[in-house]
Amino acid sequence: MLLKENLQIAVDQIRAGAVKSFLTTLGISIGVATVIFIVSILEGYNQSIQKELNVLGANTFQVQREDVFTGIQVGMRKKKHRKRLDKSLARAIRENCSLVQSVGAEIWEHNVSLKYKEKTTNPTIGVAGADPQFFPNNGYMVGEGRALTDDDVRFHRKVIVLGMDVVETLFPFEEPVGKEVKLFGKRFRVIGVLEKMGSSTFGESRDNRVIIPITTFEDNLGKNRSCKITVMVKPGVDMQAAMDQVIGVLRKERKIPPGKENDFSIFTNETLISSFNNIAVQVRGAGILLGLISLLVGSIGVMNIMLVTVTERTREIGIRKAVGARRSVILSQFLIESIVLSSVGGLFGMVAGFVLAAVVGSSLNIPFTIPLWAVFSSLAVTSAVGVLAGLYPASKAAAMDPINALRYE
């Protein structure tokens, strides 16, 4: 019964000073909202990340010159001067590695525009110079027309396979296969259209790209760019064994002395997922740290307002003690008020965090999720903040001398 009365008193006090209570708990609300937002967004990413980061085909890994980015680093990253990867390395792997099924080379140019008659795309298109193995190794499917062939590469043909974003912009009412588009100021004949893949978890369209023969790419943009080499392993072959075989061929071709580290990097879908998880842990940690700072600021505000409340209600405390209220009763009354005040701030923060996460998640095309552990943790932390912030003011109220309290004006 006493608990119910104390809760009612706490609610009445918050209602009586609604604006004051709101401003007092703003720091707590911001802290909880920050943590809830970051955790909810990261949980949404985790639900779809397995699918979205499978950028390579099944049983496939990629060789590239630079290291895969694996987390947030403070300060300048050390630049590694490495020789470029030439497309001839793909041929060397193909000829000397018995455990691989398909080897392809690709080079990319980003932020390019294409033109057809009077229509022009935005300069956001990615152009891949590739060979026929590009399609199975990267999980691309051709919906209309055909993919590149060895003859397209051998004879430096000006042919192109379009992504659906490009088709929808340049050919809204026409069949694209057989038509000619302008790229790099040259005419390219459309031979195929990729199946629609949609947007990635990170909001980037996977359909705003086109593929041309790698030799034609080099004819237009030069041969000094580094390739990426994709390798598909034979069915039933251990991925690590195939990677070791490829590494051995590359070290020999690039004349890397024994004992010296590789001057290239290898990554798989699992590598990307691990990299994302590493970044997610760091982002989550930073978000929780910011939330704790806000909670600390909020707890100071709660303690301050509770001290003011104790001062304002000194005569009330004196009357209650004069009629027999024990110290424990006074202590619990003000502790409950502090806990309720903090919890209300926490609830507002949770609602704000989830609303913000839902809006941002919708814009980024990721699922909205409510992690129950974050909800219960937020309630527990805000209650603990209420106890810590209210302990001194409540103890001060409980220790008052009733005679001096009754004399207070």
Largest β sheet strand count, sense and barrel closure:
10 strands, mixed
In N-to-C order, the SSE pattern is: HHHEHEEEEHEHEHEEEHEHEHHHHH
The geometry reads as elongated
Number of helices: 14
Low-confidence stretches: 70-79
Strand portion, in percent?
Answer: 15-25%
Number of strands: 12
Portion of residues in helices? 40-55%
Structural class by secondary-structure content? alpha+beta
Termini gap: 31 Å
Give the radius of gyration: 32 Å
Average of pLDDT:
82
Protein traits:
10-stranded mixed sheet; 14 helices; elongated; alpha+beta; 54% helix; 409 residues
Overview of this protein structure:
By secondary structure, the chain is of the alpha+beta class. Helix content is 54%, strand content 15%. The strands form two sheets. Strands 1, 2, 5, 6, 7, 8, 9, 10, 11 and 12 form a ten-stranded mixed β-sheet that branches. The longest helix is centred in the last third of the chain and has 44 residues, at 269-312. The radius of gyration is 32 Å and the shape is elongated. The model is unreliable at 70-79 (pLDDT under 50).
Indicate the topology.
Layout: H1 2-16, H2 18-24, H3 26-52, E1 60-64, H4 88-96, E2 100-112, E3 115-116, E4 119-120, E5 125-130, H5 134-138, E6 142-145, H6 150-154, E7 159-162, H7 164-170, E8 180-183, E9 186-194, E10 209-213, H8 214-221, E11 228-233, H9 239-253, E12 265-267, H10 269-312, H11 314-322, H12 327-363, H13 372-398, H14 402-407
Helix pairs in contact: 1-12, 3-10, 3-12, 3-13, 4-9, 10-12, 10-13, 12-13
